[in-house]
């Protein structure tokens, strides 16, 4: 509990707004992730948590630490940047893996133009592991 | 006054993030396919990392921040490895 009382009111209001914004967006994202119907819909919900959810809480943490330690603290922004930069890669790879698995078993909920992997030059180079010699 | 504002907002944030982690955990148990579980694990990582950050703000401790950083990096590596496994059936080619 070091130094929470020394923060001026205007700064504590700013920090509280960022913290509440970030945690509320994370909660909404998780709730939507539980509630949405198909995997491709669900893929969009956690991005709330990884964009402004993480950004708001990292900003608030950086502001509070900078005031308490009386010098600019930027470590928290590294965490925020790491999450914001890496999560799109994860989601992209997961979406393509899911599409690949749905194509392999010819899922009924895929639109017919997505069933042929050959029309997409990116997928012919990476897909179809059953024919490759690994 | 500022102490009260910060304490209430941090308490709210801790409750909301814990609830978000629980929702992601429900999706891990429920998720019909493997990719749902991988995505739920990623969401769980993010929620717990934010919970560590908020708890670190509340306690004024630097160690929780380092734990949050490790969780962020390891969560990325784990999710990439699992997605790659779903894609190809193996991680290292």
Automatic annotation (TrEMBL), chain A:
Keywords, in A-Z order = Membrane, Transmembrane, Transmembrane helix
Q: Name one GO molecular function term.
A: sodium:proton antiporter activity
Q: A Pfam family this protein belongs to?
A: PhaG_MnhG_YufB
Membrane-spanning regions, if any? 12-34, 46-67, 73-95
Region listing for Disordered, in residue ranges: 110-134
Top-rank taxon, per record = Bacteria
Spell out the Polar residues composition-biased ranges: 116-134
Q: InterPro entries, alphabetically?
A: PhaG_MnhG_YufB (IPR005133)
Q: What is this protein called?
A: Multisubunit potassium/proton antiporter, PhaG subunit
Q: Which organism is it from?
A: Paracoccus tibetensis
Automatic annotation (TrEMBL), chain B:
Q: What is its main location?
A: membrane
Segments spanning the bilayer are 6-26, 38-56, 62-87
Domain of life where this protein originates: Bacteria
Record key words, sorted: Cell membrane, Membrane, Transmembrane, Transmembrane helix, Transport
Give the coiled coil ranges: none
The UniProt entry's GO CC annotations, sorted and at most eight, read: plasma membrane
Please list the GO terms describing molecular function: sodium:proton antiporter activity
- Provide the protein's localization: Cell membrane
Q: Does the keyword Transport apply?
A: yes
How does the entry describe its membrane topology? Multi-pass membrane protein
Q: Which InterPro entries match?
A: MrpF/PhaF-like (IPR007208)
Please name the NCBIfam families in this protein's record.
PRK06161.1
The UniProt family comment states: Belongs to the CPA3 antiporters (TC 2.A.63) subunit F family.
Protein name (record): Multisubunit potassium/proton antiporter, PhaF subunit (TC 2.A.63.1.1)
């Amino acid at each position: 509990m070091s130094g929470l009382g020394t923060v001026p009111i205007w700064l504590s209001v700013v920090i509280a707004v960022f913290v509440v914004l970030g945690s509320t967006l994370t909660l909404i994202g998780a709730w939507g992730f539980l509630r949405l119907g198909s995997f491709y819909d669900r893929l969009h919900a956690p991005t709330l948590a990884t964009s402004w959810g993480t950004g708001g809480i990292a900003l608030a943490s950086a502001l509070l630490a900078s005031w308490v330690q009386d010098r600019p603290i930027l470590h928290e922004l590294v965490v925020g940047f790491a999450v914001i930069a890496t999560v799109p890669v994860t989601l992209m790879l997961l979406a393509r893996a899911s599409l690949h698995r749905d194509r392999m078993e010819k899922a009924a909920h895929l639109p017919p133009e997505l069933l042929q992997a050959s029309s997409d030059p990116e997928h012919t180079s990476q897909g179809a592991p059953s024919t490759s010699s690994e | 006054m500022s102490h009260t504002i910060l304490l209430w907002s941090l308490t709210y944030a801790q409750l909301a993030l814990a609830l978000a982690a629980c929702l992601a955990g429900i999706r891990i148990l429920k998720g019909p396919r493997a990719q749902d579980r991988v995505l739920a694990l990623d969401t769980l990582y993010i929620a717990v990392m934010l919970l560590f950050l908020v708890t670190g703000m509340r306690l004024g401790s630097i160690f929780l921040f380092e734990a949050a950083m490790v969780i962020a990096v390891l969560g990325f590596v784990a999710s990439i490895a699992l997605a790659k496994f779903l894609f190809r059936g193996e991680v290292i080619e």
